[in-house]
Design a protein that fits this description.
single chain, 152 residues, alpha/beta, OB fold (Dihydrolipoamide Acetyltransferase, E2P), five-stranded mixed barrel, 5 helices, globular
């Protein structure tokens, strides 16, 4: 018998064990185990962004895939971040004004949750989220997040 079955959220507990002991996810995407909690706070999935009109405010959460901050002509640094949830990839753009309040947390987190404005480019095929604020309750270490949610 799996000891995680006695936990309030056995799926989160199993995902936590996979993070802690293997660093590989065998049971599926780790955010799937807490999707209901994410949805209850208004956080949508990557697949839902395709149906969301440009200009709408959205909340998204995912595991960090890549981040880069290339210099611009003006010399200001813009953060380009790709995160992944269980349904796909999400591109985030963080401008300098927003970076002042959240760059440190973003740079030290494996899970990033944000609220921002959906922006479409190129006939609507390219979708980015222009980050307005960090959702701190859902941003941080994957292991800590899963541990916290497996106890609920």
């Amino acid at each position: 018998m799996d000891p995680s079955e006695d936990c309030p959220n056995p799926a989160a507990s199993r995902a936590l064990n996979e993070v802690n002991f293997m660093s590989v996810f065998c049971q599926g995407h780790p955010l799937a185990s807490i999707r209901q909690d994410l949805s209850d706070t208004g956080i949508i999935m990557a697949k839902d962004l395709r149906r969301t009109p440009s200009g709408c405010m959205v909340k998204v959460c995912g595991i960090l895939v890549i981040m880069h901050t290339p210099p611009t002509k003006s010399g200001k640094r813009i953060m380009f971040i790709t995160i992944e949830d269980e349904s796909g990839l999400i591109d985030l753009v963080v401008f300098p004004k927003t970076q002042k309040t959240c760059a440190n947390k973003i740079l030290t987190s494996t899970v990033i949750a944000v609220e921002g404005k959906l922006q479409r480019q190129g006939n609507g095929l390219s979708i980015s989220i222009i980050v307005q604020r960090l959702l701190k309750n859902w941003t941080g270490s994957l292991a800590e997040l899963l541990s916290q949610k497996s106890k609920k």
